[in-house]
Amino acid sequence: MTGVQDSQLERAVVDAVNLVNAHAGRACVRLRFRNSAECSNVALLANSATLQGERFSFRAGFETVDGTIAELADISAELIGH
Question: How far is CA 64 from CA 33, 36, 61, in A?
């Protein structure tokens, strides 16, 4: 990835974390991971989220999806039922 793509992905993660924390339980987050056959695509209705440096975490009940920005190929977040 180029620096521009990296910064766009980082901005998208920041935006997703902010959306989840502002609208807990109403934000659907979709993540696509690089080089991961087991969980390459994940979607969840997140209740809370954190971002510390490059490491992100999205929580939905007992399920947590976490990783680093470098592991992501794509991320999107949207409000549901709005």
Answer: 15, 17, 8
Write down the residue that tokens 């990783």 correspond to.
67
Structural contact between residues 16 and 75, judged by C-beta atoms closer than 8 angstroms: yes
Series of mean pLDDT values for 10-residue runs along the chain (82 residues)? 72 97 94 75 94 96 94 93 68
Give me the half-sphere count of Cα atoms (radius 13 Å) on the Cβ side of residue 23. 14
Structural domain boundaries in the chain:
3-79
Q: What does the pLDDT read at residue 38?
A: 57
- Phi and psi dihedrals of 47, rounded to 5? -95, -30
CATH architecture of 3-79: Roll (2.30)
Q: For position 6, what pLDDT does the model report?
A: 78
